[in-house]
Every structure is written in C-alpha cells, then in structure tokens.
Amino acid sequence: MTAKDFIGNELAVGDEIVFMTISYRDLRKGKIIKITPKMVIIDYGCCKTIKQNHDQVVKIIAPSQYVCTAG
C-alpha cells in the first residue's frame, strides 16, 4: 500500500508531518505511527493521537528532497 500526502509525497511510519486539527484553524506537527488504507494515525503530543486522511497531511522534508507532483 502506498500512501501519499496532499502534494503527492509518499508517506511512511515515522515521518514527521503537519496537519490541521479538526474544528480549528491552526497547524500542528506530528509523527505518523500507523498507516491504514485510507488514513494515517498521528502522534502529536503527550498521549494525543488523531486520524487524518492521507490527503489531509503534508510531509515535512528537506528542501533538496521536495518534489511537487500535485497539479
């Protein structure tokens, strides 16, 4: 199974990502702890986890690794 973020980067367990929390307009930083066929489960603080669709997160990568495949 290949999961891709909002801009087309491949996701894997352990990746650091940013996401928007449900019902809020601020971004949070977290780490992927599990990937399902439709969602990622994110650890984002002391004992806090959240589920997000693959396309609702963006992987944090070094600028030299960035490749945008979105249209």
Description:
17% of the residues are buried. It is built from no helices and 7 strands. The chain is an all-beta fold and 71 residues long. Strands 6-5-4-3-7 form a 5-stranded antiparallel beta sheet, with no helix packed on it. The protein has a two-stranded antiparallel sheet with strand order 1-2. The protein has a single domain (3-62), classed as SH3 type barrels (Roll). The radius of gyration is 12 Å and the shape is globular.
Overview features:
two-stranded antiparallel ribbon; 71 residues; SH3 type barrels; mainly beta; 5-stranded antiparallel beta sheet
How would you sum up this structure in a few lines?
The chain is globular.
Sequence-ordered SSE layout with sheet pairings:
Blueprint (H helix, E strand, L loop, with lengths): L2 E2 L5 E2 L4 E5 L6 E9 L3 E5 L5 E5 L3 E3 L12
Antiparallel strand pairs: 1-2, 3-4, 3-7, 4-5, 5-6
Helix content: under 10%
The CATH class:
Mainly Beta
Q: Radius of gyration over alpha carbons?
A: 12 Å
| General form | globular
Q: Report the sheet-strand fraction.
A: 35-45%
Are there runs of 5+ residues with pLDDT below 50, and where? none
Q: Strand order across the biggest sheet?
A: 6-5-4-3-7
CATH architecture annotation? Roll
How many structural domains can be distinguished in the coordinates? 1
Order of helices and strands: EEEEEEE
Number of strands: 7
Straight-line N-to-C gap? 22 Å
Largest sheet: 5 strands, antiparallel
Label the structural class. mainly beta
By CATH, the topology is: SH3 type barrels
